[in-house]
Amino acid sequence: MKVTQEKLPQSQVGLTIVVPPEMSKSAYEQVINKYTRLANIPGFRKGKVPRNILIQKLGADYIKAVALEELIQDTLEKVIRQEDIKALSQCELVSDFEQLIKAFQPGEELSFVAKVDVEPEVTIKDYVGLNIQAEQVEYDATQTDKVLEKKRQDMATLVPVEGRPAQAGDMTTIDFSGKFTDGPEAGTEIPGGQAVDFEVELTPGKFIEGFTESIVGMNPGDIKEVSLTFPESYGSQELAGKNVVFTITLHDIKEKELPELDDDFAQEVSEFETLEELRKSLEEKFTKENEQTNQSNKDNAILQKIAEIVEVEIPETMIKERVNQLLTQTAMELSRYYDFDVKKFFVGDRVEQMRQESRPQALEILRQGLALQAIGQQENITVDDQEIEAEVKELLREFAEEQETIDVRKVREFVRGNQMKEKTLKWLEEKATIELLPAGSLQEAEDTTDETDVSETSEVAVEATVIE
User: How many domains are contained in the chain?
Assistant: First the structure.
């Protein structure tokens, strides 16, 4: 069997294969023998059908097509092994199959062309001494106080208020109804813009601007009309930019009574005995998170840089596989964190659209990974087997309840790859010049759309069905 290889774009190898006469004859005879044993033709016992009758009944081209299909499949498998080709996918026939049927003569030489995706060749130079910019997030010493205050707020007791008007921070119970004030809808009610005995905290900026602020100063029993305008960037197009008037009736006022920030409080909200221990734990947690964020920023900057300088043609097989992984990850996150029915979402044209949208990200991830792998190989960076086994054991302990479903071999491969990545990134960081910049300075200008208006400021819409 003669094989000629040709390097093709997109990390493919073209294969021109010449099948010797004895192989073409053997493939044809095997098909004839198989159908002779299995064919059920009236007038003949099974296994006793004459050759010419069998060919006449099944058709000469049909038998040739079956023999040719099996011959090509068997030949390609042998070629991959014979030529030691690191194939990433099944071979794809390039020659026209119908033309091959016409050309196929059992006992004669047959030539056909195929192609296959192979592991890409990676070339990367000038990766020592990279000049990199990375954002550095400064540690926020007030985080601990903010968390403790949030826990105090969560544990607050609501106490009825008498003898004073509502003020910022109070929890109030109101009725409200809204109407449009101009345009063709003037005087009509806002769809879903009414509620009875609705509890609302008087926090500035909550809901659309001016709604909660207008309740400040009201006394129980007061009725007030307040004219407002929905923001142009509001989440509902039918309300964005519209002028409205809300009629608000205040029923009662409650204020928060916060627990003392002491050891009893610490025991109530955590496993610690003293407030000092709780503070220390939170500070250590936030310090570690800050360090991890800054390290991640540097790692990502390095990965982006080497992805820019690597030379590689990535085969379609790898791209499709990575896209599928990204979509699977998205589906798992939607299902796990948002209780989302992914079966209803990942349907029809939407799946193909998501594939196309995920393709640039998949390519970037692949370029980074291939570049990092090539550098690790070129610099002879290795990982310690004992360290790998120690981490594998730790992971298996964490997922002890799922031991039966865990593929230990894949876990070990994951750990090895992750440790190689960390060591190679550390090596690059030690050789690089990294300029640390203030957080946010490398980010693109944020979209002018205020997403808060769609989420937080539409809390009326969510809780009281003001807006659907």
Answer: 3
**Helices marked H in 232-341:** 263-269, 275-309, 316-338
Confidence of residue 457 (pLDDT cuts 50, 70, 90): very low
Encoded amino acid at 463, one letter? E
Q: Are residues 460 and 440 in the same domain?
A: no
Q: Could you identify the residue written with the tokens 């005087």?
A: 187
Q: What is the pLDDT of residues 57-72, one digit of tens each?
A: 889 999 999 999 999 9
Residue 184 carries which DSSP code?
G
Specify if 136 maps to a domain. Answer: no
Distance CA 254, CA 166 (A): 9
Question: What CATH number should be reported for the domain holding residue 212?
Answer: 3.10.50.40
**Rounded to the nearest 10 degrees, what angle do helices 21-38 and 51-58 cross at?**
90
We report the CATH number of the domain holding residue 28 as: 3.30.70.1050
- Phi and psi dihedrals of 115, rounded to 5? -145, 160
- 319 lies in the same domain as 386: yes
Q: Sheet holding 2-8: strands in order across? A: 2-8, 12-19, 110-117, 92-93
Whether 386 is covered by a domain: the verdict is yes
At 149-201, the pLDDT tens digits run 999 999 999 999 999 999 998 999 999 999 999 888 899 999 888 999 999 99
Report whether 262 contacts 151 (CB < 8 A).
no
Which 8-state DSSP code applies to residue 87?
Answer: B
Say yes or no: 109 and 26 in one domain.
yes
CA-based nearest residue to 250, from 206, 207, 196 = 196
Contact 19, 111 (CB under 8 A): yes
In this prediction the pTM is: 0.72
Residue showing tokens 């109030």: 172
